[in-house]
Amino acid sequence: MADNTPQLPDFIQRFLAIQPGGVSHAGGLMACMIGVLAACAWMLGGISMMISAGIAVALMLVLSPMISPEILMKMLRASPLSGEDYPAIHEMSRLLSERAELGHKPKLFLLPGKGVNAITTGTDDNTTIAISSDAVHGLSPRQMRAILAHEVAHAWHGDTRILLITDVLYRATWTIALFGLAIFIFGDFNPPTWMIILFGAVPTISFLFQRAVIRDREFAADHGASDLLNGPEDMIDALLHIDQINRKRLGLVPYRSTQPPSLLDTHPSVGARIKALRALKPGTWQKFFENRRMPPQ
């Protein structure tokens, strides 16, 4: 039986990082988030409200420091990954960080719980990578090195800062939209129906763009890992093995081949990530980081 599930056009799937697009669209997606916020503020109070929203976002970015990695690790019940018990993992992390020219070796933590997972947080010289127990004990050394390379790429890109900016933009949009709905409902203003619907929808629109930015950074980190590893083979092998472990440990149900991943997902599908890795040209390896290194001081 033919599947009649509607799908988004290919160019939209690429822009929203559901499917690989070959280039990063993070800047365009963040511009869309800014546009949604600006439009919402303008409809509510014109230019003055737009300026106020811009000032509020700037203050939030300055005054809202990222959660300390130490606090986040405590919240996740993660414990330091012992260098004595896991010397090979620490050595892999050191070598990959040196190759990416991070300037420091990330702190390593062990996450409890089921499934293969890894988290990168912190900035500058305070980068922290947390790896799940299933990853430490269920992956081969080459697969573990691929996961570490992916996380090191996140750190090098400054993805924690990017996600902080998108979070602030989303929260600001949500606040203005909620404020506008409150005025519409409890105030004397009698707006048209379309405006009420629009103010109810803009937080969701901003949230979808935020999720797309996260997926975009995952594609970029896969690219960076491929560069650090001199090719995508180890990353592809790691993704396939992780998918098998997580389906077994977490009971995940795979997407149908004809159904695109949800717009709410934080990661592209494994198939899309592998497709992007296989599309990388050999000439791009080892140049991903070299072309983006800071000029000497």
UniProtKB/TrEMBL annotation:
* Free-text comment on the cofactor: Binds 1 zinc ion per subunit.
Q: Which residues cross the membrane?
A: 23-44, 50-67, 168-186, 192-209
Q: Which keywords fit this entry according to its UniProt record? A: Cell membrane, Hydrolase, Membrane, Metal-binding, Metalloprotease, Protease, Stress response, Transmembrane, Transmembrane helix, Zinc
GO function terms (MF aspect) = hydrolase activity
Superkingdom in the source lineage: Bacteria
Task: List localization entries.
Answer: Cell membrane
Q: Does the keyword Chaperone apply?
A: no
The cross-references to InterPro entries, in alphabetical order and at most eight, read: HtpX_protease, Peptidase_M48
| Pfam families on file | Peptidase_M48
**Coiled-coil residues:** none
Membrane topology term reads: Multi-pass membrane protein
What EC designation does it have?
3.4.24.-
Task: Tell me which family the UniProt entry assigns to this protein.
Answer: Belongs to the peptidase M48 family.
User: What is the protein name for this chain?
Assistant: Heat shock protein HtpX
